[in-house]
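Q: I have three molecules that I believe assemble together. Could you output structure tokens for the complex as a whole instead of separate predictions?
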Amino acid sequence: MLKLENCRIINGGFAVEADLAVAPGVCAAVIGPSGAGKSTLIEAIAGFLPVSRGGISWNGADLTAAPPGKRPIAMLFQDGNLFPHLTVAQNVALGIHASLRLADAERRQVEEALARVGLADMGNRKPAALSGGQQSRVALARVLVQGRDLLLLDEPFAALGPALKAEMLDLVAELARESGATVLMVSHDPNDARRIADQVVLVADGRAHAPQQTTQMLDNPPPALRAYLGMA
Amino acid sequence: MKHLAFAAGLLGASAAFAETPELTVYTYDSFVSDWGPGPAVEKAFEEVCGCDLKLVGAGDGAALLARIKLEGERSDADVVLGLDTNLTAAAKETGLFADHSVSADYALPVEWTDATFVPYDWGYFAFVHNADATVPTDFKTLADSDTKIVIQDPRSSTPGLGLLLWVKAAYGDEAPAVWKGLSDNVVTVTKGWSEAYGMFLEGEADMVLSYTTSPAYHLIAEEDGSKAAAAFDEGHYMQVEVAGKLANSDQSELADQFLAFMVSDAFQSIIPTTNWMYPAVIPATGLPEGFETLVQPGKSLLLSETEAADVRDAALGEWLDALSQ
Amino acid sequence: MAGRAQPISAFPGIGAALVVAALILGTLAAVAARAEAGTGFGVSDWAALRFTLTQASLSALLSVGLAIPVARALARRRFPGRRLLIALLGAPFILPVIVAILGLLAVFGRAGWLSSLLGLFGLEPVQIYGLHGVVLAHVFFNLPLATRLILQGWQEIPAERFRLAAQLNAGPLAMWQLLEAPMLRRAAPGALAVVFAICLSSFAVALTLGGGPRATTIELAIYQAFRFDFDLGRAALLSGLQLGLTGAAALVALRVSAGEGFGAGLDRAVQRWDGHSRFSRGLDMFWIFLSAAFLLLPLAAIVLAGLPGLAALKGTVWQAAGNSILVSGFSTVILLALALPMAAAVAAGRDGMTELAGILGLAASPLVIGTGLFILIHPIADPFALALPVTALVNAVMALPFAMRILVPRAREVLGRYGRLSLSLDMQGWAFVRHVYLPRMRAQTGFAAGLAAALSMGDLGVVALFADPDFATLPLQIYRLMGAYRMEAAAGAALLLLVLSMGAFWILDRGGRWHAEA
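A: Yes, here they are, computed for all three components at once.
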């Protein structure tokens, strides 16, 4: 259970408040108007932004003061998820050991992860030699080997075409289901949420609301969401 | 060697392990260079002293004195070689030097009575030019002519200071006016002798401040008779280079031996064609062939060390004033 | 960015900065502590200060002002020999002063090539001596450096941004507004500060080309205080003033050089679609031609003068060359050990003083550092025995400001771009340094190392104060040859030095080159 208790996160000039819990194994979409603080919320959970009040915990363990790399969290950013000077396999291997010193078993794990995302035999290439979709798959392969409880997605597939994006989201859902990971994904597209999210966290008016069931929420949106969705 | 042996090892320098006594002589850099008197002097002295002569180079004469002042009584030096009469007053003031007991039949144009310092060579400052050019032969004619000269800065160069004192010794209170007259002849002022001489050889000026002995280098070493020094009617200012023993030397006897050796034939015969100066004592073999072609000034100018120390700052002020306009 | 976690600790960098500051300020303090009765500031010192500031400001403005069109031309043109030209342009900067002066005079002097050419048309020879001569010489020394620093700014704009600009059909004005002006706002102030600081401590060049004592700089006054007056208090005072001025210039530059980076790309080869008009092509060729002529002619003079002497070089000169390579190698290693952590600390935004410490090396008078070190070392060890490490260390500190200007912008970019990702992967400390920081900094590291190696090779610096007969570097040997009338051999040795410096620069810079441009 991911818990944000009475949190206040300050990012530059504005603040987001959050008091909510996400159940384990749930895939939750974080939606809301642009600039409402979706990324701020995610970055605080990941540990890039400090909370000025309140606390964050996972399954009862307090994360509030833990550095980003020590949290049970894997994260994909909007862009720049890969190091251009490292090979595909190295980029994935970073998820196991940042030192890149892998045992044979771990090396096999990297190969399996690449095969799982459909990139078998691409391990020696550099990211620049891959398509956008393939680059996303590499990042997902790394998430896979990281084996963290929580996966945070800050719109990593925004640059992909609709079909490709749908394919990636399905892959995320599939991988999450297999591993039982809890997923929090920022999205500005309600269709993304409908596609894979069980629940929706609405961020609006400086507040992150408690998650609600996706179809219920999107079919009967509260006023703030109505405005965002363009429903008069 | 009193100091860290590991550091010496680090540099691959050879530490003296044997019982051989070591005599440390601080001198100016060009003395120790491969083309200076250093290597030959070291060899000659070590043949007779049963010691290890360690020559240490430190900039030029003025830097040498600064170095001794910095090190004070803890200095490793036993002998300092390479000061001139413009520096000896300040050197004595430090109280670091001991009197010598050397006497010799000096061939200096002036009488030598200094109890602390022993002269080893000397020369005249002069303007060097291409032998085929007609050049002025006194400062006033030079000032009125179009002849271009390149000189050194007295604040950073020994010849530069020599020229300052030359004009002062020749003209006294008239010196500022002479400098004013010269200011349009001065192409530029350089930091050191090398820059100026190099510029002259490149053709940047008609004359360069150097020594009457400079043409001897070109004549003897390069068999090139195209350079000459202009004989000035006012006379020429002298530079007398000296050495002295440090009172704190732990090799006092060896130091005395070195000073005595310094005015002997073995040392003196090395000087003319390595330091390109006149030896303080004419060696038995005489001066090298070619030296007889050098100009002989009609008059030798030299301020005593106390006079030199007294007029130095004022003369520099006049020089700066005249050339800064 | 304050408060954000970073994958790299600022402490090693702050430690390195403290070492540098201790060296520069400690030696100054050592000199001051030995002072007896010092005289204060005189009228002539104010004149020296005025002249120093005037010539340094003019030299900096002109060097950077000219470097902008030259760097732009080099950034967007591809022609055979371009790389060679860029490497050769670095040469003036690393020449020993005395060699460079003679090279310059061979072209611009009263008896130089230009004057001879004018003479053919019955014109007067060039009047090189004066403030304009000082500025000309300083531009000769610093234009290449400024060009490289600004060219690097251009090369740090990722290929993606040029693609975007081309897609937007950006004309020259739009290119300027979108990419060039923001880049220059980041790169130019630093370049200005560096050139200003270099010229601030100029002495022999300013005096010689300035035509006499009216071109007295603070560094000359320091020199005078040391050897003419033996007034250590004055020397320390003047040196402190020089450090203060450089520090002030650096702070202003840091304040001004604001602006966001361009972000990172995917290491695609930079391709340019702009500047295809006939006018801009002509303009670029004009600048390339002009700068090449200005910088390469004096070099050609040095090469021509050196060729006859090259054959006559004796064993001791080769030995000195070996020493110089050794010093240069050590110096480069020390430089990188100081500069890479310092750049990381600055980029992590933890310590502004680190960046300041990095630039002070420029203003430190070699005479003061050397004397200070001498005072500090003499009681405990033989300064001569430490000639190599001391020379290598001081040369590294002197090269540090250049290295920092090269490394810091890139380090910022690397941390900005990969900091979060690395943290989320728990990749910190050495793992981050090894797998992200160093690889991403490779091109800049190579450039900085090349510059440091070349600078150290050509630097007379403190070695003259510490040299013993058994340990001479090549620049010192050149001065000795000249002092012994061996001008031809000296010219040969200078050519050897030029080749060694350029070789070191070429190898290291090349080794680090990352951008896959043709």
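A: One point stands out. The mean pLDDT of chain C is 82.
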